[in-house]
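@here heads up, posting the sequence + SMILES for the zinc ion run so it's all in one place. Ping me if the SMILES looks off, I pulled it from an old spreadsheet.
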Amino acid sequence: MYAPPSGEQPGSLRKSAPWKRRTTSYRAGARHGGGLRGQVRLGRRGLAIGIDIGGTKVAAGVVDAEGRILAEARRSTPGTDPRAVERVIVELVEELGRGHRIRSVGIGAAGWMDLDGGTVLFSPHLAWRNEPLRANLQRLLRRPVLLANDADAAAWAEWRFGAGKGESRLVCITLGTGIGGAMVMDGRVERGRFGVAGEFGHQVIMPGGHRCECGNRGCWEQYASGNALGREARVLARSNSPMAQDLLSAVGGHAETITGAIVTDLALAGDTASRELIEEVGEWLGLGLANLAAALDPGLFVIGGGLCSAGDLLVEPARKAFARNLTGRGFRPAAGIQLAALGPNAGLIGAADLSRVSSRVRS
Ligand SMILES: [Zn+2]
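bot reply: prediction finished. Complex structure tokens:
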């Protein structure tokens, strides 16, 4: 059981902190292989700080044991220098820690962490390569620190406090510029053998299709993401189709400036072409979810990320395509598909909560 030291004060200068010898992990809470009920062993009901490090901003918040954010602070991401990022984290913790008694700090960032959550193996937006971030930060912050992949942190938050509450096998999909994926299975974040599970966006769904940043062609995120929506809208706008009239006038005739977010706004305002474009993305989404259901058999998919502001315009076509493509349809129970409940703060809330409840590594 993960337990921060009793009586540890924010600023104390203990030479040897006993918790440093403990192994923390964000394979948190439950015993291996068990069911869900009663197995998430919550840590102390103190406060934790969650920090979500994005490509452009660092968001931090004080989170209580019920997942509520009591105070927030933000900074711009200070470039890619690991030391500069550490300094911003320390600043944010000091600022937020002034009015609150903070027991632990959880950091969520895009990238791969090693299995015990101590080292960032790779982060696409930051210059972290085999960076022993947790040790550095525990030294600077004098508190237990936990590192989590941002999609894992968001999935954990949705499972604990949001749309996935009570689900024993949950798959979360985050639709932003690409597709983020994470699983909470039997009360723990499932990260695979090497800690890099959940890269669902790179399942090849169209061999020979659009080139992906990962180097392959036809990856799911090239068809079911905000970037895919923007790309298809730009193609339509350049086609001189009368269908694209509203799209083009929304960007002053500059087709190349159309983004997924613009298309979503227009769709919500009733533009037919934008609605069709989102419907198409929703169908790709449903097809990929059917593939995932064939492999993972979850009880629920929770769909989060910026593209979710399209709501039912996206999710309804996804549900239909899912039902049409599900292996064994008609002869098996089908997973539900729901929108995420916690919005853009899910990563921050999840990182904080994971830092509070995390227990020993099992592997
Ligand atoms: Zn790819």
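MO: The pocket of zinc ion is lined by residues 202, 212, 214, 216, 219 (CB under 6 Å).
MO: One more: DSSP finds nine helices and 13 strands in the chain.
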